[in-house]
Amino acid sequence: MTSPDAPQFVLPLVVRIEKDAPPARTDALETAARAVLTLLADERAGTGSDGEDGEWARAVRDWQDSRIRKVVRRARGAEWRKASALPGITVTGERAEVRVFPPVPLDGWPKELVKLQVSGTDLDDPEPPAAADPARPVLWMSPELEMSAGKAMAQAGHGAQLAWWGLDDAARAAWRASGFALSVRTADPARWAELAASGLPVVRDAGFTEIAPGSCTVVAEHPALRYGSVQRG
């Protein structure tokens, strides 16, 4: 276990929000979750078959050995272009664009990102999203909590990461081959109680922002985890 005095790391995500063309909320949440998975599966974030670490592997290990904290900031125009020039991965959804960066120390953000706004990031769905496809993973958001879009994007990323940790290599490979297909939906209140008690991976927030510590924010329902699931965190 990491010492409480060890440096804390955070995973930065930046969502592109242009004034005249903001993404829909659900699209942004799903894209953020896929961005986290894309980074986790990237060869630069792990150890290769030759036993050599990728260039991001040490930072990812340091981050995962502590809290898997994520911070979502927003950018547009020149800010987005500067962020896009930094090492990272841009993942696109229907209209959403999210760039994920290798973990950084909590007090060591790149200067191109440190000035980006973190609070007040909110988005709307112009119409209710379609029902989730039960054949693919669903990240169920709590119906009991109000969160900004930025906070909800981070929570969706946590849920995707807990699901990833619970899968074996074959299931991970299949998910990756699908382009990390997934849905993010808000659970019906009655269904939420069932999901939270199901044994599926549950995200419990550390309480740094917006909501109380220990709040259950997301349940990750992956088909491969519906029976005999594994939980971490």
UniProtKB/TrEMBL annotation:
InterPro entries: Pep_tRNA_hydro_II_dom_sf (IPR023476), PTH2 (IPR002833). The keyword Hydrolase applies. Its EC number is 3.1.1.29. It catalyses: an N-acyl-L-alpha-aminoacyl-tRNA + H2O = an N-acyl-L-amino acid + a tRNA + H(+). It is an enzyme of class 3 (hydrolase). GO terms for molecular function: hydrolase activity. Keywords: Hydrolase. SUPFAM superfamilies: Peptidyl-tRNA hydrolase II. This is peptidyl-tRNA hydrolase. It comes from Streptomyces aureoversilis.
